[in-house]
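Example 4.3 (complexes with small molecules)
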Amino acid sequence: MMASIILTINNKIYGPLDIDPEITMLEFLHEYLNLTGTKFGCGQGICSACVIIQDNEDGTSEIHKTCITNALGFNGKTLRTIEGHAERDDKGEIISLHPVQESLIKGFAFQCGWCTSGFTNHTIALIEELKRNPIPVEEIEEKIEETLGEHVCRCTGYVKYYAAVKEAILNTEGATR
Ligand code: FES
Ligand code: FES
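Answer. The structure with FE2/S2 (inorganic) cluster bound is encoded below.
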């Protein structure tokens, strides 16, 4: 038996589509929409490689691990994935990256990049939250640990990631007070 889903991802409406009601959101993104930038890491909700952003009507957003969440649970939701952060022209070619993406590249934060879409999505959501609720500069590092502490990277230490995220926060007007 199939189920119907319709949702918005990166400002584009997908659906209604008939899907297997048992599939995970990660499978839906990969197999139905060809949005393969969201990565499968542990598949058990541990590594955070697969997180995407859900935008709520009240202007807040939340992070979801797509390897352990059912696709149908996102029916009617508004989401962002790694494919949606860069600015693109009419032909879909990338004009410029999101400042967080720039910061991660500039800081040599990642190596193979498998964990990077998860780190990027979560960092973007964090910075947007900080713009709503700025924190003192001296609390940045603690906030990064608290927010990104569940993200696993198999390649690097976390030092460069955290430093690049700190840089991105410091470069964002209104994120600190
Ligand atoms: S792949 Fe989803 S948490 Fe690891
Ligand atoms: S850069 Fe390879 S897993 Fe993080």
